User: Which sequence fits this backbone?
């Protein structure tokens, strides 16, 4: 079971209560709802960004700074690639599913990006690639479009989504630990919000 966000309110405050704690992952039906809406709207960049965020399970800072050559091998979108995380310096591998490869190829072709270009360049001249704030705003719009409350979710919701699905299917914490690039399995346990008697005994 995943941990439930708790509602907290400051004493003597008239402000509405805010959700704090870990942001929940998306459900599979919600992933597909967002994906279909982006496809129908022809939002090539948003679809490529959303699909890659789900597949890669990368933190926002790593996802935003990807270059075309990070996901392309010999000018073709790779089915699997490895990225070194900025915060930890640890490499993580991830699969790029066919539907994500198709959306990435469409976006790269449409924008005429070359190997050294940022995969998701910013539309603001002062920034070479989309910022965390831009990424968060896009996510809020995607969530609102399918009737979800953006205040409940965050960019880490996308990072957790596939990891949570994999854990539910396999119950293999060590596999998810590798996929997320965590140094300690205890970090994965806290990240997923699962409860175990002794995480060190789990294989």
Assistant:
């Amino acid at each position: 079971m995943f941990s439930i966000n708790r509602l907290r309110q400051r004493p003597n405050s008239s402000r509405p209560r805010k959700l704090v704690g870990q942001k929940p992952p998306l459900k599979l039906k919600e992933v597909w709802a967002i994906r279909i809406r982006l496809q129908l709207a022809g939002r090539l960049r948003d679809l490529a960004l959303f699909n890659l965020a789900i597949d890669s399970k990368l933190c926002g800072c790593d996802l935003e700074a990807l270059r075309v050559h990070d996901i392309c091998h010999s000018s073709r979108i790779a089915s699997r690639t490895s990225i070194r995380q900025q915060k930890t310096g640890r490499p993580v591998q991830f699969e790029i599913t066919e539907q994500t490869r198709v959306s990435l190829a469409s976006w790269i072709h449409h924008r005429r990006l070359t190997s050294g270009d940022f995969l998701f360049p910013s539309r603001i001249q002062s920034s070479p690639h989309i910022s965390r704030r831009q990424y968060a705003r896009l996510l809020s719009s995607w969530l609102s479009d399918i009737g979800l409350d953006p205040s409940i979710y965050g960019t880490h919701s996308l990072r957790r989504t596939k990891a949570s699905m994999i854990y539910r299917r396999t119950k293999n914490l060590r596999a998810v630990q590798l996929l997320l690039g965590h140094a300690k399995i205890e970090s994965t346990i806290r990240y997923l919000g699962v409860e175990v008697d002794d995480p060190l005994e789990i294989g």
Q: What stands out?
A: The radius of gyration is 18 Å.
